[in-house]
């Protein structure tokens, strides 16, 4: 005998298929897009405002093309089952001479952004001809990471230190020392530049850069006399080349003695 079915078995792949279909919103027009998935990701990035504020790039919508091959042919050819993604953007140019940011020109253009994989009817992806259920991707946690080369780069065995800044979104920044203790920066692991170039691009002046990395001495000119402003903290650990007196004339540090933290507090 055969027991009757108590309940219908649900189509378990529907969860994955419906979720990815909602992510792409394929077939929907820009007026029908809901604020989810790929559409929400683009909206979170745009608009992009130029540094001068005279131009803005806005997101209008996107559309998915048709796949070049079907699933079986992608497996045979060893290619990815994907469709082209084209995004329509709007460039707005503002009048520089206008005080209320009057619009000078508007241009719209469709930009090819790349290929996006499609999910098959079985809830899988075809990547380079191989059918996969899960497409893994290594994602580094955002933050600041410090490291050194363990002395393997330079013949002297000197440790060359480096720092990497990984943001939540955007370009990676790598700061590194060379054997001459000069600091360089790489943007997205490309050609290295002096770190001062990046600081200047961020708006720092030459004086601000020097004051950040170097200690400065302040001199006072009075007639033909030139006096140096004393910073006691810099004298710690130095040997006094002469007797150092306080305002009352009392000797605090004798000549030839090493200046300690106690002496600095008295100064």
TrEMBL record:
Specify the enzyme's EC class, one word: transferase
Q: Supply the EC number(s).
A: 2.7.7.6
The protein's matches in InterPro entries, at most eight in alphabetical order, are given as: DNA-dir_RNA_pol_su2, RNA_pol_bsu_protrusion, RNA_pol_Rpb2_2_sf
The UniProt entry, under Pfam families, shows: RNA_pol_Rpb2_1
BP-aspect Gene Ontology terms: DNA-templated transcription
Tell me where in this chain the RNA polymerase beta subunit protrusion domain is found. 12-163
The record's Gene Ontology cellular component field reads: DNA-directed RNA polymerase complex
Keywords from the named record: DNA-directed RNA polymerase, Nucleotidyltransferase, Transcription, Transferase
- One GO molecular function term? DNA-directed RNA polymerase activity
Keyword hit for Cytoplasm:
no
Highest taxon above the source species:
Bacteria
Fetch the PANTHER family from UniProt: DNA-DIRECTED RNA POLYMERASE I SUBUNIT 2 (PTHR20856)
Name of this protein: DNA-directed RNA polymerase
Source organism per UniProt: Pseudomonas putida
């Amino acid at each position: 005998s055969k027991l009757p079915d108590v309940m219908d078995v649900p189509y378990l792949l529907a969860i994955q298929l419906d979720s990815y279909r909602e992510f792409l919103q394929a077939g929907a027009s820009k007026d029908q897009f809901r604020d989810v998935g790929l559409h929400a990701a683009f909206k979170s990035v745009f608009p992009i405002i130029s540094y001068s504020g005279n131009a803005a790039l806005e997101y209008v919508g996107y559309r998915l093309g048709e796949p070049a091959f079907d699933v079986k042919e992608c497996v045979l050819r060893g290619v990815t089952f994907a469709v082209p993604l084209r995004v329509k953007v709007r460039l707005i140019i503002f009048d520089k001479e206008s005080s209320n940011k009057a619009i000078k020109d508007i241009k719209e253009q469709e930009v090819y952004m790349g290929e996006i994989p499609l999910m098959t009817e079985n809830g899988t992806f075809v990547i380079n001809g191989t059918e996969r259920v899960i497409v893994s991707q290594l994602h580094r946690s955002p933050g600041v990471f410090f490291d050194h080369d363990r002395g393997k780069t330079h013949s002297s065995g000197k440790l060359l230190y480096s720092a990497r800044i990984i943001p939540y979104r955007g370009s990676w920044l790598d700061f590194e020392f060379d054997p001459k203790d000069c600091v360089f920066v790489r943007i997205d692991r490309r050609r290295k530049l002096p770190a001062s170039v990046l600081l200047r691009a961020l708006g720092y002046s030459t004086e601000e850069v020097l004051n950040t990395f170097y200690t400065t001495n302040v001199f006072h000119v009075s007639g033909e006399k030139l006096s140096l402003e004393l910073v006691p903290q810099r004298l710690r650990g130095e040997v006094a080349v002469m007797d150092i007196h306080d305002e009352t004339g009392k000797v605090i540090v004798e000549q030839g003695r090493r200046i300690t933290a106690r002496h600095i507090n008295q100064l």
